[in-house]
Design goal:
This protein has 353 residues and is mainly beta. It contains 5 helices and 25 strands. It has helices at residues 16-22, 173-182, 190-198, 271-280, 288-298, and strands at 4-10, 30-36, 41-44, 49-52, 58-60, 63-66, 77-83, 90-97, 100-103, 111-113, 123-125, 134-142, 145-155, 157-162, 186-187, 207-208, 213-218, 233-239, 248-254, 258-262, 284-285, 306-307, 313-317, 330-333, 345-351. One of its GO terms (cellular component) is perineuronal net.
Length: 353
């Protein structure tokens, strides 16, 4: 039973007869104020953001706090959901009630409760994927009592702008999702792009973000990019039509399991020859996201232009020097050359299973 504090304000009886004579139509009343004690169950997280990496593990904290007069019942339900990037929906991740436990969808077999104590509802996620990035909600329900807390899972990684051979501003939102996925990446969130902007990312072409907005980061204001009198920042076009509007995309990728390398070969290669050369070496031709991850997260540096899986030619420079990106560390882009006639080296990737 929930104790309550009841305060009653009663009309004074001393003056009842006088009031009756002066105001015969007056109805005497009793006013009761009811104040409940605070909630007897709540949940809390000792940290609101957890940082991990693709392929790693993470524990999202959620601790149950209960009034001393209560004890956990066998019908207490713990439910974890993941919010979609536009925050309009929640996707089921894990539910537990007594001995009954269930994980859902792509989380099946990868999540469980830490259960270090009866009051611990923390969620452990194994073999983290790029799609696991985002906000998670822990909800605990015990009878009429309930509590929730939201925890963010962030990933170490790198944001990169991308457009395919078709050229700039050719991707609707769903094309953009596929384009990033094909390059071993996912569409970046606003928070990821903002962090990249703070890390000096400057890009004058607008691209899709995971919430359906279109934005671009400017650290060096100039006329073709919103005006030179504008302050640096992430420029936005707002939410756009996911089917009809076409832009580039900002992709995000994280650590990988495997080896990214430049293939030493006696001669330069056409695109098809490059694909075959990687296969002959027991690998696959590398993807754009793998090059960016190797460059940003591992400091990969190679001043040799090479084919990548999407038919582009690029090279990663971690240490700027004369003739090799002299002004900044960057992944240099040489375009989408003719696959049949242009000759370059090739970057390969061997996955680790």
């Amino acid at each position: 039973m929930i104790p309550v504090l009841v305060c009653a304000l009663l009309s004074l009886t001393v003056a009842d007869s006088d009031l009756d004579k002066l105001y015969p139509e007056l109805e005497h009343s009793r006013t009761i104020y009811v104040t409940e004690n605070g909630p007897q169950l709540s949940v809390a997280a000792e940290q609101m953001k957890v940082v991990s990496r693709r392929g790693g593990n993470a524990t999202l904290p959620c601790k149950i706090r209960m009034d001393q007069s209560m004890t956990p019942s066998r019908k207490m339900r713990i439910k974890w959901t993941k919010m979609t990037s536009d925050y309009l929906k929640e996707v089921d991740v894990f539910v537990a009630m007594d001995y009954h436990k269930r994980s859902y969808g792509r989380f099946h077999g990868r999540v469980h409760l830490q259960s270090s104590s009866p009051m611990d509802a923390s969620l452990v996620i194994n073999e983290i994927t790029l799609e696991d990035y985002g906000k998670y909600k822990c909800e605990v329900i015990d009878g009429l009592e309930d509590g929730t807390v939201v925890v963010s899972l962030d990933l170490e990684g790198v944001v990169f702008p991308y457009y395919p051979r078709l050229g700039r501003y050719n991707l609707n939102f769903y094309d953009a999702e596929r384009a990033c996925r094909d390059q071993d990446a996912a569409v970046a969130s606003f928070d990821q792009l903002y962090a990249a902007w703070r890390g000096k990312l400057d890009w004058c072409n607008a691209g899709w973000l995971s919430d359906g907005s279109v934005q671009y980061p400017i650290t060096n204001p100039r006329e073709p990019c919103g005006g030179k009198n504008m302050a640096p920042g992430v420029r936005t076009y707002g939410l756009r039509d996911k089917d009809k509007n076409h832009y580039d995309v900002f992709c995000f990728t994280s650590h990988y399991k495997g080896r990214f390398y430049y293939l030493i070969h006696p001669s330069k290669l056409t695109y098809d020859e490059a694909v075959q050369a990687c296969q002959k070496d027991g690998a696959q031709i590398a993807k754009v996201g793998q090059m960016y991850a190797a460059w940003k997260l591992l400091g990969f540096d190679r001043c040799d232009a090479g084919w990548l899986a999407d038919g582009s030619v690029r090279y990663p420079i971690a240490n700027p020097r004369r003739r090799c990106s002299p002004t900044e560390a960057a992944v240099r882009f040489s375009g989408f050359p003719d696959k049949k006639h242009k000759l370059y080296g090739v970057y390969c990737f061997k996955g680790q299973h």
